[in-house]
Write a structure and sequence with these properties.
69 residues; 4 helices; 80% helix; elongated
Length: 69
């Protein structure tokens, strides 16, 4: 079940728009600060915050619909 859940989570992540996915990967997987993410992506800190929140909300919804959460 754990391996299946991981696969569903990865599929959900890659369904997100690239700009939102990039922020999630840099912040959560790479452990960067919001400021570092903003510098790398080339957008404002508020845009990074928006994309992070939107991505987490969308990801949670997808996982809930898939029965993972």
């Amino acid at each position: 079940l754990r391996k299946e859940s991981r696969q569903v989570a990865l599929e959900a992540l890659f369904k997100l728009p690239p700009d939102i996915r990039q922020v999630l990967l840099l912040k959560i997987i790479q452990g960067m600060s919001l400021r570092q993410v903003a510098e790398i992506v080339g957008v404002s800190l508020s845009t990074v915050n928006y994309r992070l929140n939107q991505g987490l909300t969308d990801l949670a919804g997808q996982l809930k619909r898939a029965g993972v959460v």
